[in-house]
Structure formats: structure tokens, C-alpha cells
């Protein structure tokens, strides 16, 4: 039952076709009406008189310009050119205009434009048409000048084609009225003399076919269903005699061309047969034989295409040639067939082990399991004469036959003699065959019992036969279903093995080899299918056919090892691949060698030829620029067939300690065992094992790629105890990266990628800073460029450096998200994009990795598409940084000259606004900054830890490795303008004073012990707000003293008591005459005197606090506390520096 939707869909399609046909007819009608109108205008031209022509421009300059345009006639310039022709007088330049039109290189799309131009000139100038005809005729009948003889044949053929089309169109439009011109040209093209020259014959066939398609009416052919076209051609007044002349010329030339084609086909087959003999005898063709064959084959193909095109234009059947011989296949066995001359002693060396030998040579005897009637042997006895005649051409696997000398023509002669014999015994053979078939069917029906299986079910079980016993059992079962139709169906099922199930091919081949002992047609049919498939696939390059090609060639190779496929067939397939050693042919050749190459190389009769083939294979591999995958395939196939003659590899003997180190790093190391591995490495005798341990750490490419970060973690763990080891690891990694850039070998790529990952992990574990990472990135970009070895170190098509940069940035790039490192990464990514654009189109995997990288690091960054855009971005960035640096320098100049530094939010900032890296100033002012940044809760707990924990979530310094350039704080401070001379004088005096203070400070530090214990900053909070009697000391600072009734004075101090993780401060009184108080007063007096000296030098321009900060920044900070240890608690006692109330 049909659905209404289907009916409506069909009706819609028919309606659409009808509409297209109607529109086509309308367009054809319009074009014919226009052509008829133009023809009438050309047949009855109204030419202007001489007086009218005088009014037009006849200057040489204008006419020369118009004539130049006539040499470049096309559809786009047609209207403008015709307008110019109407405004100029070419009556004196007709011959020049004709020469320009004849020299114009017209395309098929420009013919109509040329016809319009010629029609206009014909209607204005009487002598234009005769001159044009003479000029176009010279194209077909050139003189014997050296210029014409030496002209390019292809250029002459194209010129003839355009001239013939133009002449025919001019005849249709009435510019030319003489049909004899066309007859003369056609007679010349159809001359049999031209068939002697092959190139001329090919050109004339193409021209005649084009003319026949364009002017079917001239040959007496009708336009089916084109009444309007028929009416148009009837108006051309072509006589019947003229039609007969055209028809006779075309048909005569067609018949002669067909005979020439047959002659060339015969010569080609003969040459192919000779090549087959040479291939079977020598294994390869000489260059002379190969070139002559290719030349004859190309000439035959071109002639066949030309004759077929002409036959199609004449409504004739294309020529049918006998089946082509093909040098890529052999019709019979060759002299070097592996089935001849087999010796038991040699056969032992063919296989690697006894199991393989048994699989390929020990086949089950079907006669021992299956009755003879089911194997068809009864039929063969009944019609022995006919079977001999029919089996002789296909018996290509018998070892006793000397079929290496049999050729294709010998096979043809044999088939003729067989035909004569069959004529005599035709009746008897038919009767006996019928009787035998009836008896066999009766016997089969009797013997088929419960164990018999259906043929379809048996075929469905084929893919499950993945062992020798299963395939042998299935072979025996098939014999109970043996018939001609069953064998064909089985062969087709074996041939259609799934292209992805290559593991079934050896078992299918074993089944065919087992059946070949009793059913000769099974292997011959399968080989025929495989040969035809190979020939059809050899020239197909699309990716969809690669698996089918590999399945086909491996099937042939497996059949060769079972002595089913002749060695000549294998060598011809291999030779076909080597002739065009590109693309899929490389994969096919390598798969063939992997399947049966070792077998043929070990077999004595094919050893020499296979060795020659292998040498050709390696020469092609060295000559051609193969990609790494194909190069590896070729080497593997070669050395599988012909292993290198060298001794067995001796394993390296290592000391037990070295073996233990390798076991720890390459076997035991994982996330759960890293602590144990570190503990074991620390137990090693370090002086003895350090060099080898460093060597193993650098072999990260030999371990798992995902465990490189564990090696970096071990480096971090060992650096706590062996600083020099971590430094050596970093140095060696950087050296290895540079070495890889200098060598640039394909075999080192895995190693180089691992080192890039290792360097990134070392940055993550804070062993290198960002400058090292960026220096390495820029080194990868620029190394080798601008030198003579640039194309070797970094070829234009090599994208491996891009892969290295991607690996490093994927490892540690996400930490460059703030501060100067962020700007550095932005700058580098622009340089990186420019480098990428210089490489041209990238492989898809590289492009995808780049998209992922930019998406992770800079998702909003612009991806430039041209080098110019990247250059403009770099210039803009440099200008922006230059202007920013200039502005920054102007603002920071006063502070940089004075050498001042400030403390903002607990961070030390120098004049240029960047935090000092591990500098002494940080340590000198650590106590002051800490005292400003910490608080004490009511319970005595320090809030500094909580603040640090909160900062961990918001600051990048705690989210990753600390960068030496991440924290950059700019301080804006109004400074007083100072005269440069006064400022220089001040700097000199200040440096002298600082140097003097440093010298005295060094002597003072040597004289007394240094306080190394850190004092909590909360000790100094709340000073100066106590109660009691306050007396002012010598320094002018306030101090708290208590006087007892006995007149003894005591000084109040704070004591820090620490229990567990809590810290508390308590106040206590100590006698004022103790050594602690006295030493403190002496230090205060010295400091006061020093402060007064500084104030006098500065001259009142700096405040007391700023002066103290300067002195402290210069290393003159006074000691502010002395620790006291009391029993029971850890107590830090500190006398207040200002003697204020606690």
C-alpha cells in the first residue's frame, strides 16, 4: 500500500522536472530567435557609406588601442568593445583587426563574444569576412615555416579547436556562407595520412568529435526532441550531397581509427606478455622496457578515449577490445613457485617454530573423513577426458607442472585445441556429467544425517573459527554440502571476510588449502576474486579503501604460505606497489612483506628475487621523503624479512646499588609510595650515589609520563638536605633542552617533551623562577634562526617546537596570572603566535592543543590570523610599555635618587615599585612590618595565622609557586623638588655617613652577642599608656619606674609566657641597678647621640622617624630585646625601648 506522502512527493518531483524542461525550452527558443535575427542581419548587412565612416575616429592611436583589445576578446569586455568599434573607422585597418582576432586565445565561453564582434565588423566592412576566413584557414593549413614546425603541439591543438568552433558559429550566424570551407577543413582532419602520426591523430579525433557534437545536422543526424533546432538547421540550406560528404569523411576516419586501436591493442598485449616473462624470469623490468611499455600504454589509452568520444558523437557503439592483458598479474605459475623443488631439510628453516610449521604444512586428509562421492572424485573418474581439458588452465598449483614458461597466447592456443576436443565428445560428456550429478545428489541425500548442517548456518559459523581444530571441523562439515553452487557461495563468503578481522585470514586460507586437495575450483575462484580486487584498488587513493587493501593483500600472502597463490602473483603485486611507492601502496607493500616476505626470503627458489625486492624497497625509502610512520613501517617490514646480521644484544650489567636506585625511581615510585622512596634515597651513601642518581633523575622519559611531577617532588624533598643536588638537576635539565634544540633528531622528541614537562614541574615546586621559564620559552622560539643551519634546526614544516612550548605552558602556565609574570606571558604569547603563523597550516592535533592552551591560559586573548597583525600587536605593546616606563621613571626618579624604600602593607617596596627579592632590607625591617600587621585577641592568641589562612584563598602567591616578580606594589609619594647640585651634594655626604655608621656598627656587633630569637610584635603594643610615676630620661623618651619605700627603684618589663600554642604577656618589676637595665640605658645613650648626629647632617629636612628609618635601612637598627629563659615556661623578657608603661 502506497502512502499519500510518497505520492505527493513523486508528483512534486515530476512537476519540478517539467518546470525545468519548460524553462530550458524557453531559453533555447530565445537563443535561437536571437541567432536567427543575427543571421538575417549578417546575410543582408546595411554597411555605412564612406561619408559616414569619415565622421568616425580614424586616428592611428585610437585604432591601435582597439586592435589590442581585439586580441583579448571575452564576455566581460564584449559590450565595451562593441561600443568602441562603433565609434572608430577601421576601414584602413581591417587586416590588422583580422590578425588580432586570429591570434586571440579564445576559450569556449568566449566564442559567442567573438561571434558578436565579428558580426559587427562584417556588417560595417565588406572585406572583413573574406580576410577573416583566410586568416582562420591558415590555422589548419599552415606553411612550412620553422616557426610553425617548432610550435608547441598542445598550443596548436587548442588554437585549432577554438578556430573550428568560431568558423562553425560564424557559418550558423551568416558571416560565412560558403559550406565548402568547412568541407575542406573536415576532409583535411579526416585524412588517413594523419593517422601515421599518433599526436596528430589524437588531436584530429578530438576536433572531429567536437565538430560532430556541434553540427549533427551536417552528418545527417537528428536532434531528438528538439524541433526548434531542426528548423534552424534546415534554414542553413545544406544540400544532401554535402551531408554525404561530411558523413563519408567521418565514418571513414572512424573505421580507420578503430582498426588502428585494435592494432595498438594487439601490440600492447604482446608487450605486456613479454614483460610478464621478464618479470617471472628476472624479477624486474629494465628502464628501457618499462618506458616503452608506459609510452605505448599511454598512447593506447589516449587513442581509445578519442575513438570512444567520436563514436559517441556519431551515435555509434564504442569499440570493444578483447580483455586487456596486464603486466601486474601472471596467468600461470612461474619458475620460482614455492611449490617446486621442496626439500625437507630446507623446509625446516622456513618456519620459526614447530607449531607454525604444523599449521601451514600438516593439513587434514579429507578422504579419511569424507566419502569419495561427496568429494566429486566419482565424477572425475566418469568424465576424465573432459576434466583434463577443463582443469589444465587452472591447475596452477601442481608442483610437477612446468608452467613458468606458459604465456597468455599459449593459453589461448590451448583453449582452441580444447574446443576441438570438446566438439567430438560433447554429447558423451554431457550425458556422463548429468548421470554423475544425479548419482552424487542421491548419495549426498543418503549420507546427510543429523550431524549435517545447513550451508547458511555453516557460513555464519565461519567468523567464530579462530583455532585450527574449529576450522578443520568446519571444512569436513562443508564436504557433506559439496556442490558447485555451495562452493561458489563458500568462496564468496571467504572473500567477503570483514576487513577488520585480519586474524581470520590464516584460518580461512587453511580451509581453502585443505579443500584444494579435492576441489580444484575453490582456490582458483578465490584467487580470481582477489586479483580483480587488487587491480581495482591499486589506483584508488581515498582513505576509505585502506583497510580493504590491507585485507586483500594479507589474504594473498596467507594463501602464498599455503602454496595456493603462486609466488609470481605475490611478486607482481609487490612490484605494482613499488612502481608507485606513495600513499596507500606503502602500507600495502609493508603488509604483504609482513605476511609472507620472511617465508619467500627463506625459500631457496625465491630467495634471490625477494632479496632484490627488499633492496629496491630500502632504496625507495632512502630516496623518497617519507613521513615518519611510513619510514618506520618500511624498516619494520624489511628487518622482519631480513633480520640484521649481528650478535644478540647483551644486557647491561649494573651494580646492585644502581639497580636498587632504578627500581625505586622507575618501578616503585607512585603517589602512595613517594615518602618511602624519598626516605630510601636519603639512606643512600650520598657521595657515592649522587652522580648516578642525577643521571636517573634526568631519564624522566624512561618512566611514566604521568609521574614526572613525582620526580620533581623528590627533587624538592632532597633539596632540603642536599642543596647542590637540586641545582645540578636544574642545570642538567636546561642543558638537555638546549642540546635537543642543537641536534633536532626525531628519535629524541619523546625525551625532549619529558624534559619540558620536568622543567615545568620544577617551577611548580619552586626550584626555578619565572625568568628561567621565559628564557627557555624564548630560546625555543629563536634558537638557530638567522643562521645557515636554520632549515636543519627548525624546518618550516616541523611543528615540534610548538609542541614543546605547549607542554611547558600546560604544566606551569596557569601560575602566570598576576604581576609582571602575567605581562611577560602576554608578551610571549604574541611572539608565540607570530612563530606559529610562520609555520603555515598546522596539523589538526597541534591546532587543537593550541586552542586548549589559549582557552586555559588566556581565553579572551585575540588569536591573530596573519603575521602582519601579530607584528602590529608587538609594536603597539612595545610603544605602550615604553611610554609607561618613561612615565614611571619620571615619577619614581626622586625616590630612586635618594635610595629610599617604603613599607606598604607589610611588603618592602623599593623606588621602582617592585618588591625586593630575598633582600636584606626585608629581614632588617621584618620586626617593624610584623608589629604593624599583627594583632592580639583577648585570649592572647595571635591573629596573624588566621590572616595568613584567609590570604591563601585570595592571593596567587599561596595558590602556586612563589614568583620573584609576582608582587609589585607602586607607591605614589609627593616629594619636594630639590636643586640637582644640592641633591648630589647630599647624596655624597649621606653615603659617607652611612659607610662610617656601617663600619662602627660592624665593630659593635662583634663586641656583643646578637639576639637571634624572634620577638612577637604584640609585645610592643600599648606602650606609653601605663600608669604610675613617669620620669623622663636622658633621651627624652618616657620610661616607667617604680620607687619602693626603701628608696630602691624598679623598672617595669613585659614577660612573654607560652603554653602550648597560646602566647600571653605579663608584667614584672626588676631592680634598676641590674646589668640588664644598665646595658639598655647605655645603648639608648649611644643611639641618642647617633640620632643627633644624623639630624645635624640632614639639616632639618627629614623628621626624626624618617631619619630612624633611613638608619635602620642602612643596617643600623638597634637591638631591641634580650631573651630570658625561666624554668617551667618559655619566657621572653624585653625591656621597653621607650621605657613606656606596658
Automatic annotation (TrEMBL):
List residues of the MIF4G domain.
60-282, 456-644, 659-860
GO terms for molecular function, please?
RNA binding
Compositionally biased spans, kind Basic and acidic residues? 416-449, 879-895
Which SUPFAM superfamilies did the record assign? ARM repeat
Subcellular locations according to the entry:
Cytoplasm
State whether keyword Cytoplasm applies. yes
Q: What protein is this chain from? A: MIF4G domain-containing protein
Which organism is this protein's natural source?
Lactuca saligna (Willowleaf lettuce)
Amino acid at each position: 500500500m502506497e502512502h499519500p506522502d510518497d505520492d505527493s512527493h513523486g508528483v512534486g518531483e515530476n512537476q519540478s522536472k517539467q518546470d525545468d524542461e519548460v524553462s530550458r525550452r524557453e531559453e533555447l527558443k530565445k537563443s535561437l530567435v536571437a541567432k536567427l535575427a543575427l543571421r538575417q542581419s549578417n546575410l543582408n548587412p546595411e554597411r555605412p557609406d564612406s561619408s559616414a565612416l569619415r565622421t568616425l575616429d580614424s586616428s592611428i592611436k585610437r585604432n591601435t588601442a582597439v586592435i589590442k583589445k581585439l586580441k583579448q576578446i571575452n564576455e566581460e569586455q564584449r559590450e565595451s568593445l562593441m561600443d568602441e568599434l562603433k565609434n572608430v573607422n577601421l576601414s584602413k585597418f581591417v587586416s590588422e583587426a583580422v590578425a588580432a582576432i586570429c591570434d586571440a586565445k579564445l576559450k569556449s565561453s568566449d566564442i559567442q563574444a567573438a561571434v558578436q564582434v565579428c558580426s559587427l565588423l562584417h556588417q560595417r566592412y565588406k572585406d572583413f569576412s573574406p580576410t577573416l576566413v583566410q586568416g582562420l584557414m591558415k590555422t589548419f593549413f599552415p606553411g612550412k615555416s620553422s616557426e610553425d614546425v617548432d610550435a608547441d603541439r598542445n598550443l596548436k591543438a587548442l588554437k585549432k579547436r577554438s578556430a573550428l568552433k568560431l568558423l562553425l558559429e560564424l557559418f550558423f550566424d551568416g558571416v560565412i556562407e560558403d559550406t565548402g570551407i568547412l568541407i575542406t577543413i573536415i576532409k583535411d582532419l579526416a585524412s588517413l595520412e594523419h593517422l601515421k602520426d599518433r599526436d596528430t591523430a589524437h588531436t584530429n579525433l578530438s576536433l572531429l568529435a567536437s565538430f560532430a557534437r556541434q553540427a549533427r545536422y551536417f552528418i545527417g543526424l537528428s536532434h531528438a526532441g528538439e524541433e526548434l533546432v531542426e528548423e534552424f538547421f534546415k534554414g542553413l540550406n545544406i544540400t544532401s550531397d554535402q551531408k554525404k560528404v561530411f558523413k563519408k569523411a567521418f565514418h571513414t576516419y572512424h573505421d580507420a581509427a578503430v582498426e588502428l586501436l585494435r592494432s595498438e591493442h594487439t601490440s600492447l598485449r604482446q608487450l605486456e606478455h613479454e614483460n610478464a616473462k621478464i618479470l617471472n624470469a628476472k624479477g624486474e623490468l629494465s628502464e628501457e622496457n618499462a618506458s616503452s611499455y608506459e609510452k605505448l600504454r599511454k598512447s593506447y589509452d589516449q587513442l581509445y578515449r578519442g575513438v570512444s568520444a567520436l563514436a559517441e558523437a556519431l551515435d555509434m557503439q564504442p569499440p570493444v577490445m578483447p580483455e586487456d592483458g596486464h603486466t601486474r598479474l601472471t596467468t600461470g605459475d612461474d619458475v620460482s613457485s614455492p611449490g617446486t623443488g621442496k626439500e625437507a631439510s630446507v623446509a625446516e628453516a622456513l618456519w620459526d617454530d614447530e607449531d607454525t610449521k604444523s599449521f601451514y604444512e600438516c593439513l587434514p586428509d579429507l578422504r579419511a573423513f569424507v566419502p569419495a562421492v561427496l568429494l566429486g572424485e566419482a565424477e572425475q573418474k566418469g568424465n576424465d577426458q573432459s576434466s583434463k581439458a577443463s582443469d589444465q588452465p587452472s591447475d596452477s598449483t601442481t608442483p610437477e607442472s612446468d608452467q613458468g614458461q606458459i604465456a597468455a597466447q599459449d593459453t589461448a592456443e590451448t583453449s582452441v585445441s580444447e574446443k576441438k576436443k570438446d566438439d567430438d565428445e560433447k554429447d558423451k560428456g554431457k550425458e556422463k556429467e548429468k548421470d554423475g550429478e544425479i548419482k552424487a545428489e542421491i548419495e549426498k541425500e543418503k549420507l546427510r544425517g543429523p550431524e549435517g548442517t545447513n550451508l547458511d548456518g555453516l557460513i555464519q559459523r565461519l567468523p567464530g573459527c579462530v583455532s585450527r581444530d574449529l576450522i578443520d571441523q568446519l571444512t569436513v562439515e562443508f564436504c557433506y554440502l559439496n556442490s558447485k553452487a555451495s562452493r561458489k557461495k563458500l568462496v564468496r563468503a571467504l572473500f567477503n571476510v570483514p576487513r577488520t578481522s585480519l586474524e581470520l585470514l590464516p584460518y580461512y586460507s587453511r580451509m581453502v588449502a585443505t579443500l584444494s586437495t579435492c576441489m580444484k575450483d575453490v582456490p582458483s575462484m578465490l584467487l580470481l576474486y582477489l586479483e580483480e580486487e587488487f587491480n581495482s584498488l591499486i589506483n584508488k587513493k581515498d582513505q576509505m579503501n585502506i583497510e580493504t587493501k590491507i585485507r586483500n593483500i594479507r589474504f594473498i600472502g596467507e594463501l602464498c604460505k599455503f602454496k595456493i597463490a603462486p609466488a609470481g602473483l605475490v611478486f607482481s603485486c609487490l612490484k605494482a606497489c613499488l612502481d608507485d611507492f606513495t600513499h596507500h601502496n606503502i602500507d600495502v607493500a609493508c603488509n604483504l612483506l609482513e605476511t609472507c616476505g620472511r617465508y619467500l626470503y627463506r625459500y631457496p627458489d625465491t630467495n634471490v628475487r625477494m632479496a632484490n625486492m627488499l633492496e629496491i624497497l630500502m632504496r625507495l625509502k632512502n630516496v623518497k621523503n617519507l613521513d615518519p610512520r611510513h619510514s618506520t613501517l618500511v624498516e619494520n617490514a624489511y628487518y622482519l624479512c631480513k633480520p640484521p646480521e649481528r650478535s644478540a644484544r647483551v644486557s647491561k650489567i649494573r651494580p646492585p646499588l644502581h639497580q636498587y636506585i632504578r627500581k625505586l625511581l622507575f618501578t616503585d615510585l607512585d603517589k602512595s609510595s613517594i615518602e618511602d622512596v624519598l626516605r630510601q634515597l636519603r639512606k643512600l651513601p650520598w657521595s657515592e650515589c649522587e652522580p648516578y642518581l642525577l643521571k636517573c633523575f634526568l631519564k624522566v622519559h624512561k618512566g611514566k609520563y604521568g609521574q614526572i611531577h613525582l620526580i620533581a617532588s623528590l627533587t624538592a624533598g632532597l633539596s632540603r638536605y642536599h642543596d647542590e643536588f637540586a641545582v645540578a638537576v636544574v642545570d642538567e635539565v636546561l642543558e638537555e633542552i638546549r642540546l635537543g634544540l642543537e641536534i633536532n633528531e626525531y628519535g629524541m622528541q619523546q625525551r625532549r617533551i619529558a624534559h619540558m614537562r620536568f622543567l615545568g614541574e620544577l617551577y611548580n615546586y619552586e626550584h626555578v623562577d619565572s625568568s628561567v621559564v621565559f628564557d627557555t620559552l624564548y630560546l625555543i622560539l629563536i634558537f638557530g634562526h638567522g643562521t645557515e643551519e636554520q632549515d636543519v634546526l627548525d624546518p618550516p614544516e616541523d611543528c615540534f617546537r610548538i609542541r614543546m612550548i605547549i607542554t611547558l605552558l600546560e604544566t606551569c602556565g596557569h601560575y602566570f596570572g598576576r604581576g609582571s609574570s602575567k605581562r611577560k606571558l602576554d608578551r610571549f604569547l604574541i611572539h608565540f603566535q607570530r612563530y606559529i603563523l610562520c609555520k603555515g597550516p598546522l596539523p589538526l592535533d597541534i591546532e587543537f592543543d593550541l586552542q586548549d592552551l589559549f582557552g586555559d591560559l588566556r581565553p579572551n586573548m585575540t588569536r591573530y590570523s596573519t603575521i602582519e597583525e601579530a607584528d602590529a600587536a608587538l609594536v603597539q605593546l612595545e610603544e605602550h610599555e615604553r611610554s609607561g616606563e618613561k612615565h614611571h621613571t619620571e615619577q619614581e626618579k626622586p625616590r630612586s635618587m635618594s635610595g629610599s624604600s617604603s613599607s606598604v602593607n607589610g611588603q618592602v617596596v623599593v623606588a621602582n615599585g617592585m618588591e625586593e627579592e630575598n633582600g636584606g632590607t626585608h629581614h632588617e625591617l621584618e620586626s617593624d612590618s610584623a608589629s604593624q600587621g599583627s594583632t592580639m585577641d583577648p585570649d592572647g592568641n595571635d591573629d596573624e595565622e588566621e590572616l595568613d589562612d584567609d590570604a591563601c584563598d585570595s592571593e596567587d602567591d599561596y595558590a602556586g609557586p612563589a614568583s620573584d616578580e609576582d608582587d609589585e606594589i607602586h607607591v605614589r609619594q609627593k616629594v619636594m623638588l630639590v636643586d640637582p647640585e644640592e641633591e648630589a651634594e647630599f647624596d655624597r655626604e649621606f653615603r659617607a655617613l652611612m659607610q662610617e655608621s656601617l663600619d662602627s656598627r660592624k665593630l659593635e656587633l662583634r663586641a656583643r652577642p646578637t639576639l637571634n630569637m624572634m620577638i612577637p610584635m604584640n609585645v610592643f603594643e600599648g606602650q606609653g599608656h601605663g600608669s604610675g610615676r613617669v620620669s623622663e630620661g636622658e633621651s627624652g623618651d618616657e620610661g616607667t619606674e617604680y620607687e619602693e619605700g626603701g628608696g630602691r627603684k624598679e623598672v617595669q618589663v613585659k614577660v612573654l609566657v607560652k603554653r602550648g600554642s597560646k602566647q600571653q604577656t605579663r608584667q614584672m618589676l626588676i631592680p634598676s641597678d641590674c646589668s640588664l637595665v644598665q646595658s639598655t640605658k647605655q645603648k639608648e645613650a649611644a643611639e641618642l647621640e647617633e640620632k643627633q648626629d644624623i639630624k645635624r647632617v640632614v639639616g632639618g629636612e627629614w623628621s626624626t622617624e624618617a631619619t630612624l628609618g633611613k638608619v635602620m635601612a642602612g643596617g643600623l637598627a638597634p637591638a631591641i630585646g634580650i631573651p630570658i629563659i625561666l624554668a617551667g615556661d618559655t619566657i621572653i623578657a624585653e625591656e621597653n625601648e621607650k621605657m613606656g608603661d606596658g
